[in-house]
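Help! Submission page says 'invalid entity' but I think these are all valid:
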Amino acid sequence: MNSSALITMVVTQVLVTCFTVYFFFKVLKTPNKDEGDFPPGP
Amino acid sequence: MSAKNESWGTRVGLVLAMAGNAVGLGNFLRFPVQAVQNGGGAFIIPYLVCFLLMGIPLLLIEWSMGRFGGRTGNHSTPYILDTMAKGRFWKYIGVFGIFTNIAVAAYYCYIESWTMSYVFHSIGGTFEGKSQGEVASFFNDYVDIGISTTGIPYEAVIFYIFCLALNTYILSRGLAGVEKVAKIGMPLLILFGVFLAYKGLTLGTSGASADHPTASAWDGLNFLWTPQFDSLSNPKVWLAAAGQIFFTLSVGMGTIQCYAAYVRSKDDIALNGVSAGFMNEFVEVVLGSLIVIPIAAGYLGIAWVQENAGFGMAFQTMPYLFQQWGSVLAVIAGVFWFGLLFFAGITSSLAMGTPWMGFMRDEFNWNNSKGALSFGLITLIMGLPTVFFYNYGVFDEYDYWAGTVSLVVFALLETILFSWIFGANRGWKEINMGADIKLPGLLKYIIKWVTPLLLLFVFIGSIITPKGNEWAKQFSNLTNGNGWELDNGSLIKQLANANIYDEIALVKNPATLPALQQEAEALRNSIETSSDPKEVARFQVQYEKKLSRINQVSNPGHLETLNKKLFYIPLARLLLLALFVGLSVLVYRAYKIRVKQGRNTP
């Protein structure tokens, strides 16, 4: 691969992977809220 | 879906279901082709900009609309929109959110059934020992209803019905069924994708052969990722990037609103929405870019990819390429590839069933089984013409009007509603209610100004697409008083069937065939005189393509097919119109019932 293609690919893929893992990890780690006063529907 | 007590079992299940809704066949087949056709590595810049300025805002808009609707007991867009604004017509705009799903599911399930069938054919060794041409012909035979590849009559129809039945069964289990499929399907999809991406990334030049001596997977990756910065000033590239973001996230369909309507009203939507969006991007940018293009370039050469990149590669080319890995690995790769596409497809098609079921439950008190069965039946009625008349443009017509135009129209209107009628301040508050991440305040202004303008740009761009997508040339023509020449891909020309009439005129013109033969001869001479192997490979691919075009033009059946298209395409449009009108009538009936019950909205 040429350098510019390699740099573009690696930077893009690392960025996208990091954000994906970060947000998904946050979803897994954030505790659910107390549902209490909000009914799910009618 | 039961609107009464149903909600998502777990937060991870919801995020995976939402990501599964977004991840579809386009992640693996459309994205790399769009990148190749629009500046390679430079495409990623407008693509990511559009993701931030249009994709994330639209996701947040639709998630918050859905949760807002769920709080007021509405689980599909007609009455979600109705509760958000005054004016009776909004519920009819919301019809798009059911219409699009049924119409898209009708043909999407057909593709999904191909993936099922191809898994069986991969295991059964159907493609073993077949040449590239034979594998491509196999697909053409498969979609030709009159031919059976297994001896089972109407094989394609049977697989289609089986696929629809499977979707219907899972939908009848309610949200729990959808969630279970997402929890199994998404990890498997990623696992299969990682295996194939690894193969694509490590193929290198090992796939070169006597027929394709210059083939190299590196060429494919270079082509896909080398930035061509001059393309950034081309509106065509920006339109393509915006279009890709749009389709890949499944926005403008009404499915996100429906799924989000089952989120508990105090729960976060900001983090969930962003997480599901990025998961889709991971599958598309990381996995999608490392499979089709590098593997195809690794065996057939970059020239072949440039000339033939398209949707058909998944079924017409990939099974042949897998055969080059030996019989055992070919079966594994075939199962992984078509299994991956199947999971990508089914997690999306299940989402398409939920708005209809939610609507019928809310308005007519239908239970899950009744809702799922009716969805299956309507989809079957709408879908059979795409199966029987696949070669006569019905499939493409559904894809264009329901799978492309309707999405843009609905997304534009819902964004205007959210930002300007419901109100950007109120909307921003709604998005941030219960949020587990702090969204930047700038996003509020992006939602209010930038997203609607970008959508308007996409919409107008699709109506008046200039000939050859040459915007600068047409603007210059316009300012010089020479008018604006439309492309056959523009909405106006599509409506007029311009490409078919042009093709008929071309086929009927006696000068066409000699001209094509002359061009083929010139290419053959170039092959003989050129000394650069890569150039020879390019001329060879172009020569083969020219020969295939000559065959097509000289075949009397081609003209017959074109004339049949002129009959079936308006028929497909009528079917779509009938579906939209039928759904609007149901919404009207629901309105009358609401008035009678005293639960009418503004």
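Support: the input was valid. A stray whitespace character was the problem, and the output above is from the cleaned input. The interface with chain A takes residues 3-7, 11-12, 15, 40-41, 44, 48, 70-71, 73, 75, 218, 221-222, 224-227, 261-262, 264-268, 271-272, 274-275, 278-279, 281-282, 285-286, 289, 434, 436-437 of chain B (CB under 8 Å).
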